[in-house]
Model the fold of this input.
Amino acid sequence: MDGSANFAQYAHFGDFEFNAQAGELCKQGVPVKLQGQPIEILAMLLERPGLLVSREELREKLWSGDTYVDFDHSLNAAVKRLRDALDDNADTPRYIETLTRRGYRFIARVETSAVPGPVAPGAQETRGARPRLSWQRTGLLASVTIALLLSLGGAWFHFAHSVTSRPGEIRLIVVLPLENLSNDPAQDYFADGITDTLTTDLGQIGALRVISRTSAMHFKGTRETLPQIARKLGVDAVVEGSVARSGDRIHINVKLIHAPTDRQFWTDSYNRDTGDLIRMEDQLALRIAHEVSARVTPAEEMRLASNRTLNPRAYDAYLHGRYLWNERIPEECGGNRLLRAGPA
Done:
C-alpha cells in the first residue's frame, strides 16, 4: 500500500514491533504467529496506551450483533492467546493489564515511527508519492480518498500522540492509602501500615519530597479522581495500589501515575511471605525512587537494599498498634500495648 498519509505506522514496545497497517507483530525482527481477534485486540490497545479499552468496545468492534458466541469466553481466550504471544502474564503483567469486569489497558511504554526497526531519536515520518488519477474519475474518487485519509490520519494522529512515556521531573509525590482487598475489614490496619511504611521510606530519600501520611489519609475511600486529588495536593506523581493478605502470604499491587496527565507509567506486583514484608517495603520504595528518576545516594540505596528480616508476629503487632494510635483508640483498646510489643 502507498504511504500517502503522514502518520506513524509502527509501534515499538519491549522487544516487539507492531505494523499497524499490515496487522503484523514481530519480536526482535522475527514474525510472531498471531492473527484474527488477538491481533485486532492488540491494535485497539495500542491506539490508546495507558487508557482503558472496555469489554463493550471490544465486543462492538470484534463481534458483530448477529454473531452468536459466548462473548466472555471468546474474549478471554483471545486475550490469553495475545498474552501468550507477548510472553505476558495476567497476574504480573508487563504489557496488558486486566481491569476486572471493565476491560483491558496497555501499560508498557510505547514509541511510534514511520519505518520499521529501532526508533531513531528525532526521526521524521515520510510521505509517499501520490498516485495519478485520471480527470474522468476525480469527482467520486477524490471525495472518497479525502474522506479515507482524513479518517486514517485522525485515528493515527491520536495513536501517535497518546503513547505512554516517562514523565518529566517529579518534585513531589504522594502515597495514597493502599486498598484492603483481603475481604476482611479488620485487615485495614495492615494495608494502612504498609502505606505508612512506604511513605516513611520514600520520605527518607533526600531527592524526593513526599506528602505526609496525615494529608494522604484524608483521601482514603474518596470518590474524587486522581487529577482532583493531585491538584489539591500539588503533586507531580501518585502512588496507589492494593494489599491482599491470606494467611502468611501477601500480595501487593502498586502503580505510579503521572498526576498532570492521569497516565500510568509503571506498575508491579509482589507476592511474599509476611517474614519478608519489611524487606519488600524497602525494595518497593527504592524501585519507586528509580522509576521517578530521583537521585538516590549510595547510603540510601544500601539501607533500602538491605536484607532485613523480622518476626512476623511482632511486626504485625507493631502495625496494628500504630494503626490504633493513628486512629487515637484509647489505651484500653490495646494501642500502646501493641506498640510496645512491636519491633524496636
Notes: DSSP finds eleven helices and 14 strands in the chain. The chain has a mean pLDDT of 76.
